[in-house]
Amino acid sequence: MIDTIDALLEILSAPFVQRAILGAFLVAIVASTSGTFLVFRGLSFMTSGVAHAALGGAALGLFLQHSGILPWFDPILGALLFSVLVALITGYAGEKGIAEKMEVAVGVSFALSMSIAVLLMYYIPPTQVPQIWGYLIGDILLLNDLDLLLLAETAAILLFLTVLFNKEFVYVSVDMDGATAHGLNTRAYHYLMLITSALAIAFATKAVGAILVYAIMVAPAAASNELIHSVRGVLFSVFVIALLSEMLGLLASFTIQASPSAIAGIIAALSYVIALQIRHFRDRTTDTEIPDSHEIEDLFTIMENGGSEGVHHH
Amino acid sequence: MSEFSLIEAHDLAVRYPDGELALYNVNFRISGPTFMAIIGPNGSGKSTLLKTALGMLKPVRGTMRVLGYDTVTEKKYIRREIRYVPQRDRIQLTVPMKVKDIVLMGRLLKKRPPRFASSKDKDLARQALRKVNMDELWNRPFMELSGGQRQRVLVARALASEGSILMLDEPLAGTDAESQSLIVEVLGEYHRENEVSVVMVTHDLNPIHTFVRNVLLLKNTLIGVGTPCDMMDLELLVKVYGPSAKVVEYAGHRYCVTHDVGVDRHD
Ligand SMILES: Nc1ncnc2c1ncn2[C@@H]1O[C@H](COP(=O)(O)OP(=O)(O)OP(=O)(O)O)[C@@H](O)[C@H]1O
Ligand SMILES: [Mg+2]
């Protein structure tokens, strides 16, 4: 027992582990503030769309750098540019508030940016190609200071926007037309939400890798949305589930040889499956206030007597 | 009670981007405060007319004014005065909203961010729910209500809000007779006591004809405008609903039988 605690303390004192824990915390904030609203909006697919668009953008950046067309063009700029582009296309398709149209737009921009990435790979020196894939398979154990700084800024901005505008984001998702008619500038909030989410996904993907981002952005929000009936509760629960999955993932990676992202992804996905089970179980046990047989008899007598008073329709 | 121009349209035409001419040649002027109904079969442009009045659709020809404000250039003044209930299925059920959250939405949308609900907001929300007999469901998830209950909650949202015009798109769709008369009576009473105007889209004039003062009968253009009795005219109804339309008189009231199922079409 003492030994394991000692071992744990030793692990915890390693700087890369501390960075990983801080990174996990920041990603949990991103999941709670951005993933939740995407799931509310019916846009859970956007996470993978944006992450792949970032890949295409990174490929474009590398291509521009190495072909000498724009030597200053950093791949991360390409990644951000493409992410915002996906957000704009998706936003434009969904200006009237119809989620299905947005999903189609995400799918199309996803395909487009992957095609661009694969096309450009032929023109990029083979030694650089792994850097493109690096955008998808970042590693929470390999975070550098710049990654952490960008992630911290992203998390801070998202937190600020959520505190300030969570009602607006919710109203745009619930009833776009009604909110517009009551005077809300729905279009502005619609784009604000999509663009900040896209940037957050791109930064988070760069930092911790796409696998972890997919798992953490969608599954905890979907799980919480099954069980919790208030927006604030869901925001909080997403943060807790995301952080817990990541911590267990990290812990597992120290004890058994495993990728922390993969373990975290599996745990997050399991949380959704469990939530569905709980929901199912709850639905069966509640709402079963079956009237006693004599109550039903009373009902029949009332009906036979032709009196409609007392029988209320719900 | 001084009369003013509530809604007017001049040579109005509205076209959707895919080319469908949803409304054309519409001319009318209704004075307020009033309780008015917009009727017509599916696809006749009722929702389109409301959305144009709210500045959400731009006319391709002509103009429309609400409270004297142009719906294109002065829509922000119009929206200050509006409480709108969209067709029920436009409400997304993916967000964990409780009944109280939906009703408070009507009040908080008229505030500035961060839109905190004061105790006055909550009181008014509760009162509105009480009017439609839904106050016991204050803490229930909106998603778990039946269609008719949701409709009542949405009406409560409009009652709790602020603004001199209530616009409701088919608040009676999918409700039983009891809910219908409750909603109609509540709206009628609210109109009388508060000098607000009520504009509602409906398929069926019968449940509301004793409350309504002005009726617009649409079939992509204006077929008729007048009192409910004027509209319960066989010739007019046949023109809109086809030869199976009838007008029957029963216990001193006229009823129209349009065979209009009231099933909504949505894109
Ligand atoms: N978003 C849209 N895009 C294209 N055409 C539309 C759109 N919405 C409505 N239309 C068309 O415009 C016409 C009028 O539609 P509108 O929704 O105003 O009818 P409505 O009278 O409200 O019908 P309902 O009783 O079914 O609600 C219809 O022919 C419809 O097909
Ligand atoms: Mg309609």
Q: How would you sum up this structure, described in words?
A:
The complex is a heterodimer of chains A (314) and B (267). Chain A has helices at 2-13, 15-40, 46-66, 75-93, 99-121, 129-133, 145-174, 176-181, 186-208, 210-227, 231-255, 260-285, 293-304. Chain A has 314 residues and is an all-alpha fold. Chain A has a single domain, classed as ABC transporter involved in vitamin B12 uptake, BtuC (Orthogonal Bundle). The model of chain A is unreliable at 307-314 (pLDDT under 50). Chain A starts with a helix and ends in a 10-residue tail after the last helix. Chain B has a single domain, classed as Rossmann fold, CATH 3.40.50.300. Helix content of chain B is 30%, strand content 27%. The model of chain B is unreliable at 262-267 (pLDDT under 50). The interface between A and B is large, with 34 and 37 residues. The complex binds adenosine-5'-triphosphate and magnesium ion. Magnesium ion (MG) is lined by residues 46-47, 87, 169, 264 of chain B. Adenosine-5'-triphosphate is lined by residues 16, 18, 20, 22, 40, 42-48, 264-265, 267 of chain B.
- Overall mean confidence score, pLDDT of chain A: 86
Strand order of the largest sheet of chain B: 6-7-8-3-9-10
> What is the approximate shape of chain B?
globular
Please mark out the parts of chain B with pLDDT under 50 across 5 or more consecutive residues, or reply none. Answer: 262-267
Cα Rg of chain B: 18 Å
Helical run tally of chain A = 13
Low-confidence regions of chain A: 307-314
Q: Domain count of chain B, please report it.
A: 1
Q: Report the CATH architecture of chain B.
A: 3-Layer(aba) Sandwich
CATH homologous superfamily caption of chain B: P-loop containing nucleotide triphosphate hydrolases
Helices and strands of chain A, in N-to-C order? Answer: HHHHHHHHHHHHH
Helix percent of chain B reads 25-40%
Number of helices of chain B: 8
Structural class of chain A comes to mainly alpha
**What share of the residues of chain A does DSSP label as strand, in percent?**
under 5%
Rg result of chain A: 24 Å
